[in-house]
Amino acid sequence: MAVQQSAGPDPYFPDNGDARYRVHRYELALDYRPGPNRLAGTARINAIAGRAALTEFQLNLADFRIGRLRVDGRQPHWTHRGGRLRIKPAKAIRAGAAFTVEVHWSGNPKPVNSPWGGIGWEELADGALVASQPTGAPSWYPCNDRPADKASYLISVTTPSAYAVVAGGRLLTRTTKASTTTWVYEQAAPTSSYLVGLAIGKFQTVLLGDPGPGGVPQHGHIPAHLLPEFSRDFARQPAMMELFQELFGPYPFDEYAVAVTEEELDVPVEAQGLSLFGANHVDGARGSERLVAHELAHQWFGNCVSVADWRHIWLNEGFAKYAEWLWSERSGGRSTQQLAATAHQLLTTLPQDLRLADPGRRSLFDDRVYERGGLTLHAVRCALGDEAFFRMLRDWVRLHRSGTVTTAAFAEHVARFANEPTAGLFEAWVYGAKLPPLPVLGLAP
Questions:
Q1: CA distance 141 to 397
Q2: What is d(CA 42, CA 330) in angstroms, rounded to the nearest whole number?
């Protein structure tokens, strides 16, 4: 595994995360009451100091009341303002030393502010969901909120028994006592804080296909009245899983789940081992099938292989966009070349002032990141040819499994699979702003 972490703060979100240490594991015990939207939690955070001693460090946590706080069992000095929990331990933590932070918090969770509106914990009419990309994780738990800091998670959620809890990972236990049920999930694979997903609602659970020996368990969690439409809309997800394993390599986690809320969502949201869809994405006519493919592809690109910082978001979104095109081509829809031509035509109508390698904070989710990102991969495929291109993708996932990556690392990786230099391709598509000509399969780029 090659891990390429940023040495300092994320240039787009300098107040989020602390590069002076890394977290190994989060153990979260939550109690949530949907009626009053009341959350009480305990976090046990196992971390490791970096190359310098830690006389102080920070976690990110939204506006909750802090109860007990301990570092290695001792009470530290701390302040909590502006979403930053600054902690000064009673004794400095030695360079490279393991340490444990325990935090108790409570309050009414709500989305945190961002340039794209509120993100993170969202109270629904009857339940809640978490959609944290890129900086919403502190809306519900204390964390080192930077994508390069990946940790394992044990999440326990207690809620009234009428509700089901869905989280990314494997369900270990479900225990009912009196009127409440406690759900315990384990996500053993290293996970970025923004990719910890959660949905609380009144769901019916179904198995999507028969994974068979060695297959990937896939479950859907949906409101009962949407089950007929869901069964049609997600019927081809097992085939997508087979295709993406062929093209990208083995599915990187133990299980995959999708949850559908009663309410509408602007866009679906991927978490590690879990994707969240709105009721508007279920129409019984496979109207959102490209999004089903997009979110599944993120399990490889974005979740298993994550960005070192947010400048490199095209390595998530461009790859998932191209996976949409690959699924369309392989399932009898429009070809990748046709879809590339459509995307290219769209980009000719938009300003040509965005650089994929560093789009800027406010343009993280600009359509041009997605469409130009997909076109860049199409250009790479045209340059390498199919055999080398898909071998390159599988090797990219294999080499960086559970790690973090940069645009420069991808450019270097592609070059190793090419017969001709690819620096010019990346200079034009990734580092330049002007739209290059449409790449065509079978022709020189």
A1: 29
A2: 47
For residues 128 and 32, what is the distance between their CA atoms, to the nearest angstrom?
A: 9
Mean pLDDT of 405-426: 97
pLDDT per position as a tens digit, 67-98:
999 999 999 999 999 999 999 999 999 999 99
**CA-CA-CA-CA torsion sign (60, 65, 70, 74):** positive
Please return the burial class of 360, using the count of CB atoms within 10 Å of its CB with bins 0-12, 13-18 and 19+. Answer: middle
Token pair 């339940």: residue: 127
CA distance 309 to 8: 10
- Quick check: 194 and 135 in contact, CB under 8 A? yes
Query: Mean pLDDT score of the chain, rounded to an integer?
Result: 95
Overall pTM surpassing 0.90 (yes/no) = yes
**Cα angle 180, 254, 411; round to 5:** 130
Amino acid making up residue 91: K
Assigned token pair, 398: 């294999």
Q: How far apart are CA 104 and CA 107, in angstroms?
A: 11
Outline where DSSP puts E strands in 97-144.
98-107, 120-124, 127-131
**Count, residues in the chain:** 445
Confirm if 123 and 281 have CB atoms less than 8 A apart.
Answer: no
Decide: helix, strand or coil at residue 248. Answer: helix
In angstroms, the first-to-last Cα distance of the chain is 31
**How far from chain centre, in Å, is Cα 410?**
19
pLDDT recorded at residue 8? 74
Question: Whose structure tokens read 């690109």?
Answer: 301
State the pLDDT at residue 213: 81
Q: At what angle do helices 237-248 and 386-399 cross, to 10 degrees?
A: 90
Give the up-direction half-sphere exposure of residue 216: CA atoms within 13 A in the CB hemisphere.
24
Q: Where are the beta strands (DSSP E) in 234-392?
A: 256-260, 269-271, 274-277, 306-307
What is the rounded distance in angstroms from the CA atom of residue 54 to the CA atom of residue 197? 30
pLDDT bin (cut points 50, 70, 90) of residue 7 is low
| Environment class of 263 (CB within 10 Å of its CB; exposed 0-12, middle 13-18, buried 19+) | middle
CB 378 within 8 A of CB 336: yes
* DSSP designation for 84: E
Q: CA nearest 134: which of 2, 302, 369?
A: 302
Q: Average of pLDDT values for 249-269?
A: 95
CA pair distance 334, 41, nearest whole angstrom: 48
* Strands of the 198-201 sheet, one edge to the other: 120-124, 127-131, 198-201, 164-167
